[in-house]
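Case study: Diaminopimelate epimerase.
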Amino acid sequence: MKISFTKMHGLGNDFVVIDAINQNIQLNSEQIRSISDRNRGIGCDQLLLVEPPADESVLFNYRIFNADGQEVEQCGNGARCFARFVHEQKLTLETTIPVATNSGNIILTLEKDNLVTVNMGIPEFIPEHIPFQADAEANHYSLEVNDQQLDIGVVSIGNPHAVSQVNDIKTAPVLILGAAIESHSRFPNRVNAGFMQVIDQNMIKLRVYERGVGETQACGTGACAAMVIGRRWDLLDENVQVMLTGGTLKISWKAEGEPVFMTGPAQSVYEGSIDL
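Here is what the predicted structure looks like once written out:
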């Protein structure tokens, strides 16, 4: 089976994007892992499928698979690349693009200067909806990790996130703690682990250990999660620049019950095909 694809990235968070409208695509977990392999395949953090919509409320169905082959609910950087892809491939001429994901519908808007704004929806804090094992919803939770107690905030931005505050992002033990948090038993579906350094009320630095991937150069939903938790902790204003290893995202969130908006770049790198 020969598959045409486009390699893309959003601030270094890289994707293999596949048109499953004009190609008959049926991929299993082993094939996705093979495509994602950086030594023997194309190499990517996530594989994205563009599918026809299931109903008239959206223009496309957006599916996301992590490098380990697991299908996941949401990917913010991928959403921006998705919007750029369907427009560049002339699958739509619209600049406001509603799409369906496994966690609900989101709206993608193509802006000037290669930027894309994504309405990521309303953050979810109820533990069983994240899912996260806790007796009740709270702004702060104590999580035992590697024989220490971490203070975390927990939220779903269509996918689960645990956020902790650190003094210095450069020296934070992201790889060690990130792996332990990702697979912690209190997160039944595993979790993305974010490490946030607050610079001021309008700027944070962030590193994210992504579920099923490891640390990436950027994580869009992770940026949204960190900003939302920072707002709940009375550390941040409603418009925040999130500085990631791969670049900066603008995140806006007014208040609980309101959607989160993310703005950032999306870039096509090359097109190709692969035989599976």
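For the exam, be able to explain this: The mean pLDDT is 97.
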